[in-house]
């Protein structure tokens, strides 16, 4: 993880984020309009992660809700998966949420995504519920939470 850098994305990074999100999620992409709207949504922060060359290989969007926070999405380009970038970005979000005064953070994750489930469990998240047919393709989501 020490070779990864996490930095705040700016409004000028919209197209980069759209391309990265599409590359990371393919058919499950939110779509360009929804991705771009994240820059204007109340309390939402967009972070990039990558090597020191400032070319992002991953991204994370999260929402500060005061005493709670919500991880909206995290994605890593296929070529960078399994190398600790997702964990580095997640740790940055947890630290920022804690610093902002949040006591708990929530997320939804595809129950059929074992890599993501392992990432979140390793970071201290626990399953607190489920959402049936949460995804457009009918897939179920686990609702997870982590105390900060």
TrEMBL record:
SUPFAM superfamilies (alphabetical): Acyl-CoA N-acyltransferases (Nat)
Sequence ranges assigned to domain N-acetyltransferase in this UniProt record: 4-148
Can you tell me which residues the record assigns to a coiled coil? none
Write the record's keywords in alphabetical order, separated by commas: Acyltransferase, Transferase
| E.C. code | 2.3.1.-
Annotated Gene Ontology MF terms?
acyltransferase activity, transferring groups other than amino-acyl groups
Q: This chain belongs to which protein, by name? A: GNAT family N-acetyltransferase
């Amino acid at each position: 993880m020490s070779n990864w850098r996490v930095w705040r994305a700016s409004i000028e990074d919209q197209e980069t984020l759209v391309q990265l999100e599409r590359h990371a999620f393919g058919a499950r992409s939110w779509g360009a309009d929804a991705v771009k709207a994240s820059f204007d949504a109340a309390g939402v922060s967009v972070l990039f992660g990558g090597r020191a060359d400032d070319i992002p290989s991953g991204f994370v969007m999260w929402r500060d809700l005061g005493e709670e926070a919500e991880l909206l999405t995290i994605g890593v380009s296929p070529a960078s998966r399994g190398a600790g970038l997702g964990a580095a970005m997640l740790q940055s979000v947890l630290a920022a949420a804690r610093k902002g005064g949040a006591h708990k953070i929530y997320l939804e994750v595809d129950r059929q995504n074992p890599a993501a489930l392992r990432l979140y469990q390793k970071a201290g998240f626990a399953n607190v519920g489920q959402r049936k047919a949460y995804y457009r393709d009918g897939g179920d989501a686990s609702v997870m939470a982590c105390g900060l």
